[in-house]
Automatic annotation (TrEMBL):
GO terms for molecular function: metal ion binding; oxoglutarate dehydrogenase (succinyl-transferring) activity; thiamine pyrophosphate binding. It comes from the Eukaryota. Its cofactor is thiamine diphosphate; Mg(2+). This is 2-oxoglutarate dehydrogenase complex component E1. It is an enzyme of class 1 (oxidoreductase). InterPro entries: 2-oxogl_dehyd_N, 2oxoglutarate_DH_E1, DH_E1, KGD_C_sf, ODO-1/KGD_C, THDP-binding, Transketolase-like_Pyr-bd. Residues 652-872 form the Transketolase-like pyrimidine-binding domain. Pfam families: 2-oxogl_dehyd_N, E1_dh, OxoGdeHyase_C, Transket_pyr. Its main location: mitochondrion. The keyword Transit peptide applies.
Length: 1028
């Protein structure tokens, strides 16, 4: 039994009571400029002060000490929003604050704010300690304003042209006059408030010094956004790391290391530019700081125990990251520029060099530990790799029992335009803190060159910063000017420490520029003339930083020049070596090598996937056992009783077959993960793998994790309401270890097109582009049940169209890269890019899931799952179809009356999926059982040419018909017809020219919304199918 303890605390009614009142005060305070710092957030300051005072009364100013001692200050229980204390009420009354409010908005209840009739407006002379309080509050408010909005003034753009938040205005609250201070106050000393670390060891500072230090921290080349984080401790942690004057120092070793890294980052691009001037490389120039930033992130994390870093990134700077972060051998990179190079072991079509992945393990010198770097291959589709990286990271953590992400960590690099524009970024962020999806904090780095292709940020986003999406998960955002390497290094170090301390996401916004066009052959002056005039005059960051370091005496020029020359020699030598390479090896670019998986060469027999009757029974029983005292819903008790009856009868329905497939894979010691929206119960309430105690909140039980002590772990998890990120995540999970069954289920199949990018760019083409296999299973509910245009079609035709198989060639046994085959079915499966199935029996569903792991290779499996078949009494299988010696049937040939006299059969109907049950019912009604044979194609892709040939040969006098319930331009027809014709042609059978169609007409929409139309269409379709 498992229990989730909710950590959500709900605001109490008592605390909510104060909200409207505080709002009123806030609004009025803005109007009453003289009291403008006394806004609602002042009460937060008092809260914080009170908190400090309650720990140690000496840590607050003595006036506050007095105040708290005498006034019996009471904090509300939650929200941190505090009613003004009595002394403040008195102060408001004295200053005439309430006279400015309409009478009706002033609360009248006992204990709440009261107007003070009789007091004239205007500031009264205050007693001395009141003046001190006012000053102190003003200083606190000033500090708070810098902490909250100082970033708006930060000088983040190295070009000095733009404001990173697209707003050049100075907020009023970042001026001392806003707090009623004047020039004369600048040299007055004030106690440094406890809410800041700018004082260091000093307790008092002049206003001038306070402002200077705040400006240095918040408005120089670092802009910090963190005040929205709902945790005082976390905010304080950040404040300490940036405000404390002692914190920012890097030691000389770190500086020298960073100089060498910046040399590499800069000279690498120069070299590529010199050697292959007309090649696209999406250079990093203008944002070279990315490399030392990533490296120090990794150093810091490695020092804290991280030994696996999984990365995803777009085109920009990718080659540089490969060369200088993962340290991919330069020869392998340079090879990629050679157009004459032949693919050697590239089994597919390959990909351009700036999309390829890699996996490399090497020594990290800062921590003196081995670190594995994985750069996940990705398509052009920006940000699509984000959830894939997260899924892979989660899987790495799972397999090594790294429950808190202490060992494996992800880093995602983003472009500024893509980060703001692509919805999958948001979807991925929403996975970041979910128990079944968290990777315990990701470090996001935006390579913000302030442009997206030719589009200016002012035309590309509506949010102030390109990073604003990260605020939804309370991630701190550190903006930094990419030309100030010292600041970049500090920010990167703190970001890594944040992730390792709090296990939460963090964002580094590296604000730089793009020295050339979008790619090196583009002319940027067409569209950004002003910006590029400035860029042309901008010295490279390496030069700027090194000159600074030499001038201040931190490094010597001779040392720097020697380091530069050393790297130049490395480049020249490897370039010379790379010329001797004649082949591009795809194994060098694999992001997920599966050690020991492809060891056997074959031939492989078609796998038997049945299990012993004993195993079926054990799973059937154990999958429904409850812990002592667990109270199950009455409706489920009935469901379980029905399942028990089925077991007695040696029968299974769809749900039970699924449990048996999953259970048996678990019993073999393998891990199974099933994720998607509402998968725990199942959209159609057929699964019930997670049971909820009816009398205890958040107590649940997953019986399938209690089958045997040696079983694999079953993760079944409802996902966020996302398809793109959730499917991408599972894909990433699936590529990590081939010995697990990873499944994603769509709520209804049609929603899968929200994840089309993952299907097109990764699932169907991943192996061809990146030699990366995946055995991911997609369960897509599909079928026309009169439910209207949505929820009927999983767009089977689209998946079939994505299949790489040739419709004009009857497949023969083919050797593949890793294996040789003697079995056509296996050869086809090894050769295909997708397996697509539309299954009609529970037993076959059981087998196909088990077959995924029984194959000696991995292929994505797309299953059109049923809806009405889940409960159709005819849709049952017996144990006999699932026990040892049985296997997945690619087709179900006709097995009824028609087989008795095949020559007399007048029509052979091929169909796929649930329509089979309609067809046999109609055939029976029409008394055509001897005239019409019906064969079900269970595995559509690869197309079972061999088995279909047997049916065609058997019913040689029969007309050939393909029947489907989908519209003619949809469903399996357009895929099956040419293949049937091709097969018949290869048999010299004249029926090749006459393949009949029975089904709905072509249409624009997937299914009729009007019930009567649906039934009429169905009737017509059945008449066509039964016509002889
Ligand atoms: C989803 C998607 N849409 C469009 C493109 C075409 N495209 C390639 S790069 C690019 C601009 C990206 O800008 P940004 O994210 O700021 O990265 P940068 O190139 O500036 O580093 C565009 C629109 C793409 N690759 N992916
Ligand atoms: Mg950009």
């Amino acid at each position: 039994m498992e229990r989730i303890v909710s950590s959500l605390s709900r605001p109490s009614i008592g605390s909510i009571r104060w909200l409207p009142q505080l709002k009123l005060i806030t609004r009025s305070a803005h109007r009453a400029h003289a009291e403008s710092f006394l806004n609602a957030s002042s009460s937060n300051y008092i809260d914080e002060m009170y908190e400090q005072w309650s720990k140690d009364p000496h840590t607050v100013h003595k006036s506050w000490d007095l105040f708290f001692r005498n006034q019996h200050y009471q904090r509300p229980p939650t929200l941190g929003i505090t009613p003004p204390p009595p002394a403040l009420i008195e102060y408001y009354q004295k200053t005439g604050f309430f006279q400015q409010q309409p009478a009706h908005i002033v609360p009248q209840q006992q204990g709440q704010l009261q107007p003070a009739p009789g007091y004239a407006s205007g500031v009264q002379e205050l007693p001395l300690d009141m003046q001190a309080i006012q000053d102190h509050m003003a200083i606190q408010a000033l500090v708070r304003s810098y902490q909250m909005r100082g970033h708006k003034l930060a000088q983040l753009d190295p070009l000095g042209l733009s404001s990173a938040d697209l707003d050049a205005e100075r907020p009023h609250d970042l001026t001392y006059t806003f707090y009623n201070f004047n020039e004369a106050d600048l040299d007055r000393k004030f106690t440094v408030p406890q809410i800041t670390f700018i004082g260091g060891q000093e307790k008092e500072l002049s206003l001038r010094e306070i402002i200077k230090r705040l400006e240095d921290v918040y408005c120089h080349t670092i802009g910090l956004e963190y005040m929205y984080i709902n945790s005082y401790e976390k905010c304080d942690w950040i404040r300490q790391r940036f405000e404390d004057p002692a914190q920012k120092k890097l030691d000389i070793k770190e500086i020298r290391r960073a100089v060498k890294r910046l040399i590499r980052a800069s000279k690498f691009e120069d070299y590529l530019k010199k050697k292959w001037s007309s090649e696209k490389r999406f250079g990093l120039e203008g944002c070279e700081a990315l490399i030392p930033a990533m490296k120090i992130v990794i150093d810091t994390a490695a020092n804290k125990g991280v030994d696996t870093v999984i990365m995803g990134m777009p085109h920009r700077g990718r080659l540089n990251v490969l060369a200088n972060v993962t340290r991919k051998p330069l020869e392998e990179l340079f090879c990629q520029f050679d157009p004459k190079l032949e693919p050697s072991d590239v089994s597919g079509s390959g990909d351009v060099k700036y999309h390829l992945g890699t996996s490399i393990e090497r020594l990290n010198r800062a921590s003196n530990t081995m670190v594995k770097f994985v750069l996940v291959a990705n398509p052009s589709h920006l940000e699509a790799v984000d959830p894939v990286v997260q899924g892979k990271t989660r899987a790495e953590q799972f397999y090594r029992g790294d429950k808190h992400g202490d060992k494996a960590m992800s880093i995602l690099i983003h472009g500024d335009a893509a980060f703001a524009g692509q919805g999958v970024v948001y979807e991925t962020f929403h996975l970041s803190d979910l128990p079944a999806y968290t990777t315990h904090g990701t470090i996001h780095i935006i390579c913000n060159n302030q442009i997206g292709f030719t589009t200016d940020p002012r035309m590309a986003r509506s949010s102030p910063y390109c990073t604003d999406v990260a605020r939804v998960v309370n991630a701190p955002i550190f903006h930094v000017n990419a030309d100030d390497i010292d600041s970049v290094l500090h920010v990167a170090k703190v970001a890594a420490e944040w992730r390792c301390t709090f296990k939460k996401d963090v964002v580094i916004d590296l604000v730089g520029y793009r020295r050339h066009g979008h790619n090196e052959t583009d002319e940027p002056m067409f569209t950004q003339p002003f910006m590029y005039k400035k860029i042309h005059k901008q010295p490279p960051v390496l030069k700027k930083w090194v000159e600074k370091l030499i001038n201040e005496g931190t490094i010597q020029r001779e040392w720097y020049e020697a380091e530069e020359a050393k790297y130049q020699r490395i480049l020249d030598d490897t370039f010379a070596n790379s010329k001797s390479s004649a082949y591009a090896k795809d194994k060098n670019w694999l992001d997920s090598p599966w050690k020991n998986f492809f060891t056997s060469k074959g031939p492989f027999p078609y796998p038997e996937t049945g299990v012993s009757e004993e195993t079926l029974k054990t799973i059937g029983i154990k999958a429904h056992e409850l812990p002592q005292g667990f109270v199950l819903h009455r409706g489920l008790i009935r469901v379980f009783e029905k399942r028990s009856e089925m077991l007695q009868e040696r029968e299974v329905d769809w749900g039970l077959a699924e449990s048996m497939a999953i259970g048996s894979v678990l019993l073999d010691g393998n891990h199974v993960r099933l994720s998607g929206q509402d998968v725990e119960r199942g959209t159609f309430s057929h699964r019930h793998h997670v049971l909820h105690d009816q009398e205890k909140d958040l107590v649940f039980h997953i019986p399938m994790n209690y089958l045997s002590p040696t079983q694999g772990h079953y993760s079944i998890c409802n996902s966020s309401l996302s398809e793109f990120a959730a499917l991408g995540f599972e894909l990433g999970y699936s590529i990590t270890n081939p010995n697990s069954l990873i499944m994603w289920e769509a709520q209804f199949g049609d929603f899968a097109n929200n994840a089309q990018c993952i299907i097109d760019q990764f699932i169907c083409s991943g192996q061809a582009k990146w030699v990366r296999q995946s055995g991911l299973v997609l369960l897509l509910p599909h079928g026309y049940e009169g439910q209207g245009p949505e929820h009927s079609s999983a767009r089977l035709e689209r998946f079939l169209q994505l299949a790489s198989e040739d419709e004009d060639r009857v497949t023969e046994i083919k050797e593949t890269k890793y294996h040789h085959h003697t079995d056509l079915a296996m050869s086809q499966l090894d050769d295909t890019n997708l397996i697509i199935a539309n299954i009609t029996t529970p037993a076959n569903y059981f087998h196909i899931l088990r077959r995924q792991l029984a194959l000696p290779f991995r292929k994505p499996l797309i299953i059109m799952s049923p809806k009405s078949l889940l409960r159709l009494p005819a849709c049952r299988s017996t144990f006999d179809e699932m026990i040892t010696g049985t296997s997945f049937k690619r087709i179900h040939p006709e097995g009824g009356a028609a087989t008795e006299n095949p020559d007399g059969v007048k029509k052979i109907i091929f169909c796929s999926g649930k329509t089979y049950y309609d067809l046999i019912e109609e055939r029976h009604k029409n008394k055509l059982d001897f005239e019409i044979a019906i064969a079900r194609i269970e595995q559509l892709c690869p197309f079972p040419f061999d088995l279909i040939r047997e049916e065609l040969e058997k019913y040689k006098n029969a007309k050939v018909c393909f029947a489907q319930e989908e519209h003619k331009n949809m469903g399996p027809y357009t895929y099956c017809k040419p293949r049937l014709a091709c097969l018949l042609r290869s048999m010299d059978d004249p029926r090749a020219a006459e393949i009949n169609y029975a089904g709905r007409d072509s249409a624009a929409s997937t299914a009729a919304g009007i019930k009567s139309s649906h039934y009429l269409e169905q009737k017509t379709y059945m008449e066509q199918a039964m016509a002889l």
